[in-house]
């Protein structure tokens, strides 16, 4: 089965992680992950099959707790997910960020999960470690199995 992994990556961290995850999955042979990078240049399109969203956190103001939040750089992904019925095909969210930012670490991913009423399945820091690739692969495989998609 092919599952799309929609993501946005400004610093290259999320891109690098998704590429490693895609390669690892291909080596395992149980599921094919197809990475799809979303940017401001991505044309609006209709998602017609289940997918996962990889959402980094980039903030420019506010702390996300008591004085609001001003998200930046993930807007193109949010707009793409909002296009047509794209949001109804999302299976779950994987978040990333920098743990130095404490509660803000996966703030954007958590907000996406809440907005689309899907689980925040996993997280990784920056580019992730090799064990994060294996861990998140296992989580996604189990989630797909639980959803009877494998």
Could you explain the architecture of this structure?
There is one protein chain. By secondary structure, the protein is α/β, with parallel strands linked by helices. The chain has one domain (2-147): Flavodoxin domain (Rossmann fold, 3-Layer(aba) Sandwich), CATH 3.40.50.360. Helix content is 34%, strand content 21%. The protein has a five-stranded parallel sheet with strand order 2-1-3-4-5, with helices on both faces. Helix 1 crosses helix 4 (130-146). The chain is globular, with a radius of gyration of 15 Å. The protein starts with a strand and ends with a helix. The mean pLDDT is 87.
In short:
Helices cover 34% and strands 21% of the residues. The protein is an alpha/beta fold and 150 residues long.
């Amino acid at each position: 089965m092919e599952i799309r992994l929609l993501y946005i990556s400004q610093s290259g961290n999320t891109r690098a992680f998704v590429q490693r995850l895609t390669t690892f999955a291909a080596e395992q042979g149980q599921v094919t992950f197809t990475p799809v990078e979303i940017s401001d240049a991505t044309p609006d399109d209709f998602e017609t099959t289940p997918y996962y969203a990889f959402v980094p956190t980039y903030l420019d103001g506010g702390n996300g707790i008591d004085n609001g939040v001003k998200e930046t750089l993930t807007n193109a992904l949010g707009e793409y997910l909002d296009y047509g019925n794209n949001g109804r095909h999302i299976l779950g969210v994987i978040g990333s960020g920098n743990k130095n930012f404490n509660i803000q670490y996966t703030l954007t991913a958590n907000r996406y999960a809440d907005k689309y009423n899907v689980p925040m399945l996993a997280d990784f820091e920056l580019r992730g470690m090799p064990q994060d690739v294996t861990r998140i692969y296992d989580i996604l495989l189990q989630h797909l199995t639980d959803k009877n998609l494998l």
